[in-house]
Specification:
Rossmann fold; 3 domains; six-stranded mixed beta sheet; 11 helices; 22% strand; binds guanosine-5'-diphosphate; KH_dom-like_a/b; GTP binding; repeat; GTPase Der
Length: 436
């Protein structure tokens, strides 16, 4: 199911990131100690009443020393390309500027729905001043105040009204969606091509089976898959297309539509800083993951080399211990056949359900083996557990007091669940709930 994407566009200092942070709020991540993930966030999920959508702050994509008007054009372009609805933000205190008019001109031609938000309307008297903004040509201006959190409800109600009709309706096909992410030049496109040309792959070219131009449906060993190609569109000469933030944004959008994420690492260069940031974001999304070490033809590919590389990955990405690693060459196609079985295994585990009675046997054995901790004289009591969701598998453990369930004990229970059931390739979540 695809969620709507909303982008905020506007000059520097009108208050875009203030509004972004307010709407996104404090989101709980599975682990919060991954470097670089929470800083400078420009893309995130927003929950508004019963609606969920993704929000982009286009102002967060830095375009170096480009003149302001060029930056504005590029950011408006990003909003048009990536979003279903655009929030065009201006500032009541400065009125309409040349840069606002530039943005308006581009948005006007795009045919994308635009909602005009006039920020910094901090008190009711200032509402008089929003009328001049009618002249931008986007109908009624919505007065808001980022600092005081005013007017956001009306603004979002309007944004939600403008979502395209098909949004939120389940996709009719049951195919497993996966995407290939990684820094530039690790071999993502080569890998997608190699996969689609494999012996056991039948690429379907039936018109209308894809919604997105870069989705490739195919059949492997009797099962339906869709590969979402993030590398597919690029090098069209836009300034922003070569920025790291923009490629990350594209990758995150693809991850959101995927069940399994393939993270490609280049064996020739080894793991770099940018790999770590990408991996952190992929992990945070809570999807099944397969790590692909590509360009395996460039190293002496004996067992020891594989072991060494695996140790390096395990050391660098401690939080990804559930992900399986495959070594292959997209160029020579050596070992390429080892990939799809891992994609399938990861997706099976991602959607796997464990019967409550079997789960409780494992949990109770675990508790007997490792007595629950006490905090200030009070002992954690584990009563029973049940799986409440898949994608990823999520378990609720009922206890006397959730405060007593520390991270380390959760981790212990997770390890026991993994030992008992496998769950290779997928994260699992454990939530503690009170039941007396
Ligand atoms: P951006 O460059 O568009 O992302 O703008 P920022 O969110 O960084 O905000 C620029 C400045 O405007 C900051 O100093 C904010 O504190 C301030 N600001 C944001 N929203 C409001 C508002 O509603 N009222 C007032 N008075 N200041 C605001
Ligand atoms: P992307 O930017 O991640 O999509 O990377 P590309 O697929 O465009 O590949 C970048 C470069 O790496 C190209 O010159 C490819 O030919 C090369 N390449 C890709 N896969 C392999 C591989 O398995 N082995 C070797 N030696 N080169 C590869």
């Amino acid at each position: 199911m695809r969620k709507a994407v909303v982008a905020i566009v506007g000059r520097p200092n009108v208050g875009k990131s203030t509004i972004f942070n307010r709407l996104v709020g404090e989101r709980i991540s599975i682990v919060d100690d991954i470097p670089g993930v929470t800083r400078d966030r420009i893309y995130s999920k927003v929950e508004w009443l019963s609606n969920e959508f993704h929000l982009i702050d286009t102002g967060g994509i830095e375009l170096g020393d480009e003149p302001l008007l060029v930056q504005m054009r590029e950011q408006a372009d990003i909003a048009i390309n990536e979003a279903d609805v655009i929030i065009f933000m201006v500032n009541v205190r400065e009125g309409i500027t040349a840069a606002d008019e530039e943005v308006a001109k581009i948005l006007y031609k795009s045919n994308k729905p635009v909602v005009l938000a006039v920020n910094k309307v901090d008190n009711p008297e200032m509402r008089e001043e929003i009328y001049e903004f009618y002249s931008l040509g986007f109908g009624e201006p919505y007065p808001i105040s980022g600092s005081h959190g005013l007017g956001l409800g009306d603004l979002l109600d309007r944004v939600v009204e403008l979502f395209p009709k098909h949004i939120g309706i389940s996709e009719e096909d049951e195919a497993l969606h996966f995407c290939v992410i990684g820094r530039p030049n690790v071999g993502k496109s080569s890998l997608v091509n190699a996969l689609l040309q494999q012996d056991r792959v039948i690429v379907s070219n039936i018109a209308g089976t894809t919604r997105d131009a870069v989705d490739s449906p195919f059949v492997y060993d009797g099962d339906d898959y869709v590969i979402i190609d993030t590398a597919g569109m690029r090098k069209r000469g836009k300034i922003y297309e070569s920025t790291e933030k923009y490629s990350l944004l594209r990758a995150m959008k693809a991850i959101d539509r995927s069940d399994v994420v393939l993270i490609v690492i280049d064996a020739e260069t080894g793991i770099l800083e940018q790999d770590k940031r990408i991996v952190g974001h992929a992990h945070e999304a809570g999807k099944a993951i397969v790590i692909v070490v590509n360009k395996w033809d460039t190293v002496d590919s004996d067992q020891q080399a594989m072991k060494n590389f695996e140790d390096e990955i395990r050391a660098q990405f401690v939080f990804l211990d559930y992900a399986q690693i495959v070594f292959l060459s997209a160029l020579t196609k050596k070992r390429i056949h080892t990939l799809m079985p891992q994609v399938r295994l990861a997706s099976e585990n991602y959607t796997r359900r464990i019967e409550t009675s079997v789960l409780n046997d494992v949990i109770m054995d675990a508790v007997a083996l490792n007595p629950t901790p006490t905090v200030r004289g009070r002992r954690l009591k584990v009563l029973y557990a049940t799986q409440v969701a898949v994608k990823p598998p999520t378990f609720v453990v009922f206890v006397n007091d959730p405060e007593l369930m520390h991270f380390s004990y959760k981790r212990f229970l997770e390890n026991r669940i993994r030992e008992a059931f496998g769950f290779e390739g997928t994260p699992i979540k454990i939530l503690a709930r009170k039941r007396s």
